Amino acid sequence: MSTTPSHSAVASGDDQIAHSLAPRAGSLTRALKLRHLVFIGLAYMAPLAVFDMFGIVAEATSGHVPLAYVVVMIAVLFTAFSYSRMVRFFPIAGSAYTYAREAINAHLGFLVGWVATLDYLLLPMINAILSAIYMTAVIPGVPFWVWVLLTVGICTALNLVGVKLAASMNVILVGIQLVVAVVFVVLTVVNIANGANGAEFTARPFISSDVQGAAIAAGAAILALSFLGFDAVSTLAEEAEKPERDIPRAIFIIIAVAGAFFITVTYVMQTLFPDVTELADIVGASPEIAKYIGGAAFQAIFVGGYMMAVLGCGITQQMSAARLLYAMGRDGALPKRLFGTVDPRTGVPVVNVLIVALVALTALFVDLDQAASMINFGAFIAFTFVNLSVIFVFFRFLQRRTAGAWAAFVAVPAIGVVINVWLWLSLDPISMVIGGAWLALGVVYLLVQTRGLRAPAPELTGPINLSMYE
């Protein structure tokens, strides 16, 4: 059922926006405080993600990874502002799909949600690629494909037997990642202070005479992957104690903390190695730098900590993707007989877990930068439509159109639209083809399901809790 702001709620403008949505049956318990929301968002983003794309982006931007992070952070902040607007209108478990459906059009909202599902399906694949890259750096004698198969196999096996242990380990895994990252930064700073590799602290990683806008945009388009998940807290609006206040605050805090962390880490890495072509393996630059700054022992610790994070994320990502497919099957958005069933003994959507595992095995044939671009294809579309949703809310629902309202509901999100489209157009051409094909498939499916848009669009549901079946 569509939930829109009442006439009286929007008539008075931004100060009294839709705080009285009709309660839904089976409402979730409102128990999450601001600190809970912030931690969940940071845990979802995985702190060590900062090391994933450093070598590739350093080469693409000619040594300006921190600048590329600044650009993508600005883009994300504009989108975050739009999320903060939308959660005040719709303090329900939201997402880009939800906002586009409610503010623009249900059929268009379905397509936004359909494209966003590509992120869920491909994240286990990029996780397997990263696992293989890091392990190959430490044990080069083992073929790349062996690590891919092992990573996918372990994550699939644990998802089939249950993931309660992995879920309970989230806090520990995040803590380990933070400790490893802090030690990495400290060792890098010590090396720079000692003049290692002729390095010295300058502003070059942010600005220099050879900065090229197109290259920075391309790098930023890849690095958007690091920020995926900042909006995950918007799906917790029905479980937050004060969603209209705390969800926007949590989103901005998450972006600020993560952005400062990403920029700091990549600044010291880029300062130590302004030219990554000096490294033997650009794709595996981070573990190679770890060995340079701390020797083989620290490299082993670094990769060990990273692999724990990889497995933790891989299990969660595969679980989320499988549950998303299950929810779509259960609700009729996908064939129920195939996707909408769970094993009665374990409560696991076995078929969906195996489908996600097969998709993850495409890691055997895809490069890291192409994989990141494919995931960001859906992310930039989702971010674009969150910004567009704010503009539509302004013209459809808001009656008091002051100068401040024009700025908050039109000007700022319009800038967000432009930035996200700019970054989207900077993605890898192959990823645009694959993402476009997925979107086209969604259009065909929508037309069939709705008999040429004459019937309502299928409902899409995010990953749900299957504990009721266990």
Automatic annotation (TrEMBL):
Principal place of residence: membrane
Domain of life: Bacteria
Gene3D superfamilies according to UniProt: Amino acid/polyamine transporter I
Locations listed in the record: Membrane
Domain Amino acid permease/ SLC12A: 36-436
InterPro entries: AA-permease/SLC12A_dom, APC_superfamily
Pfam families hit by this protein: AA_permease
Segments forming a coiled coil: none
Transmembrane segments annotated in the record for this chain: 37-58, 64-83, 104-126, 132-159, 171-193, 213-237, 249-269, 289-315, 346-365, 377-398, 405-424, 430-448
Keyword annotations from UniProtKB, A to Z: Membrane, Transmembrane, Transmembrane helix
A single GO cellular-component term on record: membrane
Topological category with respect to the lipid bilayer: Multi-pass membrane protein
GO aspect biological process, one term: transmembrane transport
PANTHER family found in the cross-reference section: AMINO ACID TRANSPORTER-RELATED, PUTRESCINE IMPORTER PUUP
Name of the protein this chain belongs to: Putrescine importer PuuP
Lineage: Bacteria, Bacillati, Actinomycetota, Actinomycetes, Micrococcales
